[in-house]
Amino acid sequence: MKIQKQQAMRTVLYALAPLCLAAIYFFGWRFIATLVVVGATGLLCEWLMARRYGFKITESLFVSCTLFALSLPPTIPLWIAAVGIAFGIIFGKMIFGGFGRNIFNPAITARAFIYISFGVPMTAAFVGNATQGGWFPAGFGSWMSQADSVSAATPLVTGDASLFELFLGLTSGSFGETSAILILLGGLYIMFKKAANWKIVVASLTSFLLLQSIFWATGLQIATESGLKGVSDPLTALLSGSFLFAAFFMITDPVSSSQTTNAGRWIYGAFFGILTVLIRTFSTWDEGVTFAILLANMFAPLLDTLIKGAKAKKKLKKAEGGKA
């Protein structure tokens, strides 16, 4: 089995390594089992498709599998994780022609599929952070965190976590999306190594914080089952949920994002940030990131085409004006 090397993808894997270790520390060794099942299933699916159509397996596969595993709740049944990555690799990547041709991010395609198909395990199967039982050995001394024997809601739902807890990752949540400091460090690393475009990241963060600040400053309240609820302050909203993780590692995917023009990158990132806030605020989905990424992926090719077309027309008019 030959695997095509991709330095940019390897750089992303290096950046994700601390998050994988943190996933064990915060939630237990079950993360390794999840990662192995996801990785083996994804590799098998891509190998079968590559063998049939004469494609090469690329190192991007391992990035997709790692991102997907880190996005899952700690108690997700392993068979659901396997079904998800199989769908993501086959229908989100290989069916389009393999790496470089897929429209949607395979990892987020996999997550969206099981989120829709298996809603309860994906939204109600969170457990308390292992550090609630002590700083060490925490998750390194257990199979899975039992700090809270009853499934716990994430800070995005309850809004009761402090900024300190959100920054370090001392909360319930998905395997790799709780520690803001590790996400930031990993994200800065891949931008420094040019494995992720900084314009997309900055546009995502800026648009998110701007719209969230407007809603928060105006005192916007949304009707819920328990009554009216105000929106979170911008910093809490930024550090809660998976937005930060997605802004650095998912929306910057070199294939499914807008990559041909600088204007396209700015618009694409801003579109993602705005969509996330709107979905979180006005829909029944508390997170919003999954569908915001898919919608942004969907419009990325059109965005690039429109911008390149506008530039071509401008250049043509300029040339015609010079001849006249």
Q: Care to describe what's here?
A:
There is one protein chain. The chain has a single domain, classed as Orthogonal Bundle (Ammonium transporter fold), CATH 1.10.3430. A hairpin with a 2-residue loop joins strand 3 and strand 4. By secondary structure, the chain is mainly α. It is built from 14 helices and 4 strands. The longest helix has 35 residues, at 289-323. It has a two-stranded parallel ribbon. The chain has a two-stranded antiparallel ribbon with strand order 3-4. Mean pLDDT is 86; it is low at 147-151.
Tell me the Rg in angstroms: 20 Å
- Biggest sheet, strands in spatial order? 1-2
User: What distance separates the N and C termini?
Assistant: 61 Å
Strand content: under 5%
Assign the CATH topology.
Ammonium transporter fold
> How many helices does DSSP assign?
14
The structure class reads: mainly alpha
Instruction: Please name the CATH architecture.
Output: Orthogonal Bundle
Q: Which runs of at least 5 residues are low in confidence (pLDDT < 50)?
A: 147-151
Q: Tell me the major beta sheet.
A: 2 strands, parallel
Oligomeric nature of the chains: single chain
Shape: globular
The string of secondary-structure elements, in order, is: EHHEHHHHHHHHEEHHHH
The count of β-strands is 4
Give the helix proportion (percent range). Answer: 55-70%
Q: Which whole number gives the mean pLDDT?
A: 86
What is the level 1 CATH name?
Mainly Alpha
Q: How many domains make up the coordinates?
A: 1
Pfam family, one: NQR2_RnfD_RnfE
Transmembrane segments: 12-32, 76-96, 108-127, 166-188, 200-223, 235-251, 263-282, 288-307
GO cellular component, one term: plasma membrane
Protein name: RnfABCDGE type electron transport complex subunit D
